[in-house]
Amino acid sequence: MKPSVSPAREVALLACMVALLHVGKQALNFLPNIEVVTLLLIVYTLGFGWKRSLLVAVAFTVLEMTVWAIHLWVIMYIYIWPFLILLTHLLRRNRSVLFWALFSAAFGLFFGMMAALPYIVTIGLPGAVAWWASGIPFDLMHAGGNFALCLVLHRPLMYLTDRVRAIFHMDAPDRGTDENGEGGNGPDAAKSI
Amino acid sequence: MKNKKILAFAIALVVVIAGFIGAWLILRDKPQEGTKAVTLEVVDDKAAKTTYALKTDAEFLRGVMDEAKAKGFTYEGSESAYGLMISHVNGLRADYQQDGAYWAIYVNGAYGEYGADSQPVADGDTFTFEYTKG
């Protein structure tokens, strides 16, 4: 019989995913540009699929708006997190923890550049470039933090998504096999550095 | 093959990071130099002169004195109804009550008519703090 998850369990799971994003972000607020949102959205996409992750990203953005009010920073969330989910989905065949750590670092590095896009409209291109350039040290910290967190937590979190899928009787998202033929969607799909 | 791709990704990321650092060094806001070129001179009790050249946007002499601290100039004083009463310049005390001396301010060679808080600063001005007895 094909595994399926009831709508109630689906909603409960999505709510937990959003809550984890928000609490994780709040918990690390005191550390400039060190965040778990990137890692969690990568894991969500690989473990639960891009559609669920996209719903979670939208709900997370709405939650941030209610907490912090609507302003430019929150508007940037509307495109940044879906972009991360899309990229993750396109690269989902990769199994290497090191690959995902580098990917996460690259996302953190370019975060400021992506965040500067609305400023092109509000203050013009030169102003947006200046705004981005002034934040480069923070982007470097962001890259370093993302790399370290992903290197340490990617595998344990992916294991947890396997466990959650088993509990919720969920299909695994299609990750195919990597170019070495490793992977597949089974619970003991090889994950290597 | 997979490891080579990951290695290439890592090398590319390092190159991009280096590029970002370079961009930051080039594009970041640099301290603005002032538009007025002024000179601060200190003549001590032994008639030795120390000179400080500055670029400033300060409106009054006291602002110039504060900016000159970056070049080693120091001063101390007390606030009064007439503004700053300078007692020490570069660590040398000239307290009229105790030493019978004071710090005279000259502006472009002429005896200053204003205190440091109200002496205007113009491009090309030379301000001289001279240890004066009597």
Describe the model:
- The complex is a heterodimer of chains A (193) and B (134).
- Chain A has 193 residues and is an all-alpha fold.
- Chain A has 8 helices and no strands.
- Chain B is of the alpha+beta class and 134 residues long.
- Chain B folds into 2 domains: 1-30; 36-133, Ferric Hydroxamate Uptake Protein, Chain A, domain 1, CATH 2.170.130.30.
- Chain B contains 3 helices and 8 strands, in the order H-E-E-H-E-E-E-H-E-E-E.
- In chain B, the strands form 2 sheets. A 5-stranded mixed beta sheet of chain B has the order 2-1-8-6-7. Chain B has a 3-stranded antiparallel beta sheet with strand order 3-4-5, with no helix packed on it.
Radius of gyration of chain B: 24 Å
Oligomer: heterodimer
What is the share of helical residues of chain B?
25-40%
- Secondary-structure element sequence of chain A? HHHHHHHH
Number of strands of chain B: 8
Annotation field: number of helices of chain A:
8
N-to-C series of helices and strands of chain B? HEEHEEEHEEE
Q: CATH first level of chain A: which class?
A: Mainly Alpha
CATH topology of the largest domain in chain B: Ferric Hydroxamate Uptake Protein, Chain A, domain 1
Quickly give the structural class of chain A. mainly alpha
Overall spatial form of chain A:
globular
- CATH architecture label name of chain A: Orthogonal Bundle
CATH class of the largest domain in chain B: Mainly Beta
Distance between the termini of chain A: 35 Å
Q: Using the alpha-carbon principal axes, give the shape of chain B.
A: elongated
Question: How much of the sequence of chain B is in beta strands?
Answer: 35-45%
Q: Give the strand line-up of the largest sheet of chain B.
A: 2-1-8-6-7
The percentage helix of chain A is over 70%
Annotated CATH architecture of the largest domain in chain B: Beta Complex
